[in-house]
Amino acid sequence: MQKKIPMRKCVGCGEMKEKKELIRVLKTPEDEILLDTTGRANGRGAYICNNADCLKKAVKNKGLERSLKSHIPAEVLERMEKELG
């Protein structure tokens, strides 16, 4: 039997993709927002494609804020944009 591939939806473009293709944006229990490279850290997560365009879309349509249930500061968004390149 073939193993089920975990699928997640990008909060930017809305496409369903394999979990390993996406980057997890995490809101920790301390309300800190960061990129979760391991995909296993504790906290509320939202998934986004590995490009700056989807990040911009997610910010514009408030998909990221809605998924994480909190406001995202501008400096955090800037840092995430730099990390995505």
Structure description:
Helix content is about 30%, strand content about 25%. The protein has helices at about 50-60, 65-70, 75-85, and strands at about 5-10, 15-20, 20-25, 35, 45-50. The strands form two sheets. The protein has a three-stranded antiparallel sheet with strand order 4-3-5. A two-stranded antiparallel sheet has the order 1-2. The termini are far apart. The longest helix has 11 residues, at about 75-85. It has about 80 residues and is of the alpha+beta class. A hairpin with a 5-residue loop joins strand 3 and strand 4 (about 35). The radius of gyration is 13 Å and the shape is globular.
From the alpha-carbon coordinates, what is the Rg to the nearest angstrom? 13 Å
Number of strands: 5
Element-by-element helix/strand order:
EEEEEHHH
Low-confidence stretches: none
Strand content: 25-35%
The best one-word shape is globular
Helix content: 25-40%
Oligomer: single chain
Largest sheet: 3 strands, antiparallel
Give the strand order, joined by hyphens, for the main sheet: 4-3-5
Mean pLDDT over the full residue set: 91
| Helical stretch tally | 3
Please write out the topology.
Layout lengths: L6 E3 L6 E3 L3 E6 L5 E4 L7 E6 L2 H9 L2 H6 L5 H11 L1
Antiparallel strand pairs: 1-2, 3-4, 3-5
